């Protein structure tokens, strides 16, 4: 019985480590696809331009994370926690930490077919 439980736990642990295909491999599946297929699956592009018979369609994904500043802890002097000759706060009033995660996927289309793509940004993993 114990061996079955250990095997089950091991299988669940391995399954939780499994990840899906990377963004690179998911976008590579569109090479050779038409512009219509690209718009049906990815939606309307955020940016689009045509130059010398070549069409560029870009999709931008962006997310902002905000980490709040640390909490200040009051400590007391002779006159209580906020007053007195030596009262004050532990820590410093730091601003919150803001991180912008962005990935721009640009498809190059020639004769209405996807020829290649590029990934740019810090969130294109």
Characterization of the model:
The protein has about 120 residues and is α+β, with helices and mostly antiparallel strands. It has one domain (about 1-120). The chain is built from three helices and six strands. The protein has helices at about 1-15, 25-30, 35-40; strands spanning about 45-50, 55-65, 75, 90, 95-110, 115-120. The strands form two sheets. A four-stranded antiparallel β-sheet has the order 1-2-5-6. It has a two-stranded antiparallel sheet with strand order 3-4. It is flat, with a radius of gyration of 26 Å. The model has no long low-confidence stretch (mean pLDDT about 80).
Main sheet: strand order = 1-2-5-6
**Which whole number gives the mean pLDDT?**
82
Tell me, briefly, the overall form: flat
Helix fraction, binned, reads: 10-25%
Topology diagram in text:
Elements: H1 2-17, H2 23-28, H3 35-42, E1 47-51, E2 54-67, E3 73-75, E4 88-90, E5 97-110, E6 113-121
Antiparallel strand pairs: 1-2, 2-5, 3-4, 5-6
What are its keywords?
two-stranded antiparallel ribbon; 38% strand; alpha+beta
Quick synopsis:
The protein has about 120 residues and is of the alpha+beta class.
